[in-house]
Amino acid sequence: MTGDRTLSGDTANTVLGPVPVRELGVVAVHEALLSVLPGAEYAFDITLDRAEIFETLAAELRDFRAHGGGTIVDSTGMFHGRDVPLYESLSRATGVHIIASTGMGPEEMLGGYFLTPQTDPPTPWPAEKFADLFTAEITDGMVVPRVERRAAAGLVATAATRAGMTATDESLFRGAARTALATGVPVSIRYGGDALHDLEVVLDEKLSAARVVVGGLDRPDAVAAGAAREIARRGAYVALDTVGSEGAGHVGDRERAALVLELVAAGHGNRILLSSNATGVAEGGPANDVPYSRVLSDFVPLLTAQGLGEADVRRILVDNPAALLAVR
Predict the structure, then answer these.
(1) SS3 328
(2) Over the stretch 80-101, which tens digit does the pLDDT of each residue have?
(3) Are residues 325 and 73 in contact, defined by beta-carbon separation less than 8 angstroms?
(4) What one-character DSSP code corresponds to residue 124?
(5) Nearest CA among 197, 223, 199 for reference residue 209
(6) Residue 186 contacts residue 320 (beta carbons within 8 Å)
(7) What is d(CA 258, CA 276) in angstroms, rounded to the nearest whole number?
(8) What's the rounded Cα separation, in Å, for the pair 231 and 212?
(9) How far is CA 53 from CA 14, 57, 110, 173, 292, in A?
């Protein structure tokens, strides 16, 4: 039983097809497998050795599984290195379920095609066009460039500009929400300057808050504003998803642990999700060199040492992500 309802008949979209959510096990809800800065694959000094990438990622996934992990959610979305055939092979080889995502954002990471629409006067890509793009990656399968479509995306991931949501960001958020309404997959958003404002943009599309996870809520500004508690109160999921990172815009693990305990004490244990935003392989951009197992190896012991019970740990790591990722 999760915080929402019994999930015995529900499935999540993995790269190998639908899987009953009761089989997902411990889920890392916001990670990156292969992260490639758009265009980096064409740089003279970068070689994407698929065999080497496979071995590196397989070792990381086996370590995650050895620590008790069951499912990795790759939240990179479209055009940032997502490689569905590679992920299929990795899942078969390691036994770890992999859920890939559609979606884009923030605006600064979009290609020119999405930023220079042929309208007079020029306007941002409308939400319905983003919705059509993302929805097809669920109903028809994720695009394998110049080859085919295969496997349905398991969620829509998007992000707003750190300084504050732009008009294009708003189109992305509304398009993501419309895709969720049309397909039953959840939405993962990373807020820009104001977490509550950005959540409200998605909810304005009449999407249930229970189908939304707000990431980055262990940023110092969010912690200082009490954003996680308010977002949980509204019914959305709270992702503390940079476990193992501190400084450079993130609080440390002890402060994260205190926030988890505070949310549980306030009755919001059924709205907490944990992850590390780790990068398995990065080309052309920075990597967050944290193992996928970090939550299990270091953070959970920290939580239990501070008094979090076994039932709450299971709810946060297993039941909550199962409820979120169930296709409804």
Answers:
(1) coil
(2) 788 999 999 999 999 999 999 9
(3) yes
(4) P
(5) 199
(6) no
(7) 17
(8) 10
(9) 20, 6, 25, 32, 16
